[in-house]
# Entry
Amino acid sequence: MTAPHAPDSSAAPDATRFDALPSPLDAVPELRAAARWMIAAFGAVGAALIGAGPLVAVGKVHGLGEALVAGAALFVSLTGVSLAIWQVSRVLEPPLTTVASLADPAVRELRELVDASPADFLGSAATSVEDLLSHRAVAANTARLLADEPDPRRRELLRAHLARARANVVRTDPYVRWLLAMTHVWQIRAALRRARWWCLVAVVLVTTGAVGFLTVTGGT
# Structure
């Protein structure tokens, strides 16, 4: 078994300064505020379609065929509004963020950013995201080996390894907390980006439906 790296006491001041930095979670209210504005905008469009559309159609639709076309057009527009609200509302759902979330494709860009310049993000605590998280895995594996080891001499050796591993966990914990906080923000940011693309699709649906509806109701 490879012994874990001994704790680097010189990293402690870095960790203290790191903890004093503003939290990435401070960006969450702004991201969700943007999502609420988008929901409000599409909600207003839906209200206008439901409120004004049927009133405009009264007396201007003749025959079952035109009525079906007008209804289908209005349905397409409202589908676009509903799609946009549904997708954007997912931004308001708090994602569950754990270490496993770092494998999510949505945060791949963040992980690549940290790995490309680990000194800027992790200081002397680790050389990559994988290296940063390895201390927890080493501590957990060593604790399991210690629990199953019957030999007293090997148990003493494992205790020494476990003490060093736990010290490394304490040293890197501020960076892990920052990384998880940034991952949480990145997940919400990715959800907002996806929602914007769906909003473009919704705009196409709303426009198509509105044009069809106005064509039928404005032709007489």
